[in-house]
Amino acid sequence: MKSIRKILFGVLLLAVGGTTYAQISTNTPYSRYGLGDLSDHSFAGNAGMGGTGIGYRTPFHINPMNPASYSAVDSLSFMFDMGVSLKQSQFKESGLKINANNSSFDYLAAQFRLHRRVGLSLGMLPVSTVGYKFSATTNVADADVKAYNTMSGSGGLQKAYIGIGAKLFPQLSIGANVAYLYGTIDHSNTLTLSNGGDQTTQTHTLKVNSYTLDFGLQYTQKIGKTDFLTIGATYALGHNLGSEDKQVVSLTDGSTYKKTTETIVKDGYSLPHSYGVGISYAHGNRWLFNADYAVQQWKNAIYINKDNAYLNRTRIALGAELLPAANSRKYFARVRYRVGAFYTTPYVTTPSGDAPKEYGVSAGIGLPLSTYQRNSVLNITGQFVRATAANSMLMSENRFVIKVGLTFNERWFMKWKIQ
Predict the structure, then answer these.
(1) CA–CA separation, 287 vs 283, rounded Å?
(2) CA–CA separation, 251 vs 363, rounded Å?
(3) What CA–CA distance (Å, rounded) separates 34 from 298?
């Protein structure tokens, strides 16, 4: 068992090491729009169940998708969770195929009990990522000249959060996360002409220093002797972002002159109001079934002070987990096996149509790292995502993602008695 534990820790360290050299954590042209590619805040274990978590309530894992779940933490335990992702994407457009590989450090979180009815969690989570680089060639009207556009982008938004979940009654818990939202997003577009004419470069830098606030509720009802039904609900506050958007346009012939204009837009972006509901059904500690439905009202948010720049985003997810025998002496009987599926609509639109809808399936395992302290788990999840373009002029994508997460859950606060 010690050798297995060393091997599993080695796998995680290698994955973390691989992310150190990654320059961008995503590679999709659709991250050019809006705030980039959005994160759903599901940890590696949740991701194996389709990214469900609104109704998910457990003392063994951290679940920031619903802060009401923090109150389920065991009184003797301290939990620490970290995760990384490895991603391979294949883009298709007009018969052409392009492959891209990326990796990222996803999240870092801790959780412990403050009071017998109150749990606290804090950590770092991604909010959005931007990463793309591509070129396009067009013919200038009424002239035998070609225009070459090179577009690139990088950066993203992150948040540092602290959350509290409290039991109001044995069956009812509420919670809240408050976070500092920050990050920088850079876009660049360079236009050159085939006749050696002027070169135009547009840069667009968005810096965000703001906050997020979200709330959660969970109600658990015992059914029979061993079964439990949990209903969850979440709400995230929509508000204007504290931001500075710097847009610079430079025109030059490359030698004799350069003309630059600069525009700064303050607080020209906002976050949407978001709602979610979820159901979780646990059959003892053997079977678990989850279902989530969430809506982000991006259509009411502003983009560079413009209304109706976004689309409302909907996400539906289903997931299940099997733990064959929690107290078995056989190692693989104590492994958690997970499957899931999800469907997500886009929140951004492009000049050629709406961004793709995403359909995904997932499967994962939770590997215990110790014989006696069985709550520390290495979670490994594989996801296949199909992004279907709205029309033939847009790029479609097949994406395969490996998520690796370590949940460290040990009894730090136990008082040992010596006889």
Answers:
(1) 5
(2) 51
(3) 10
What is the pTM (predicted TM-score) of this model? 0.87
Compute the distance between CA of residue 229 and CA of residue 304 in angstroms, rounded to an integer. Answer: 44
- What letters, b where the CB count within 10 A reaches 16 and e where it falls short, cover 270-287? bbbbbebbbbbbbeeeee
17 secondary structure, DSSP code:
H
Q: Which of 87, 85, 156 is nearest to 126 (CA)?
A: 156
Q: Name 104's Cβ contacts closer than 8 Å, sequence gap at least 6.
A: 19, 22, 25, 26, 84, 85, 87, 126, 129
Report the C-alpha gap between 364 and 323 in whole angstroms. 12
What is the spatial distance between Cα 271 and Cα 238, in angstroms, rounded to a whole number? Answer: 5
Q: Which of 322, 363, 366 has the alpha carbon at shortest distance from 341?
A: 363
Q: What are phi and psi for residue 290, nearest 5 degrees?
A: -125, 150
Does position 63 have pLDDT exceeding 80, yes or no?
Answer: yes
Cβ(28)–Cβ(131) under 8 Å? yes
Taking CA atoms, 10 is separated from 4, 5, 6, 245, 336, in Å, by 10, 9, 6, 42, 20
CA distance 419 to 416: 10
**Alpha-carbon span 399 to 407, nearest angstrom:** 25
Max mean pLDDT range (13-17, 59-63, 99-103, 192-196): 59-63
**Average of per-residue pLDDT values in the chain:** 87
Question: Distance between CA 170 and CA 221 in Å, rounded?
Answer: 10
Q: Are strands 396-411 and 313-322 parallel, antiparallel or unpaired?
A: unpaired
Do residues 69 and 57 make contact, with C-beta atoms less than 8 angstroms apart? Answer: yes
Q: How far is CA 359 from the centre of its chain?
A: 16
Neighbours of 37 (CB within 10 A): 21
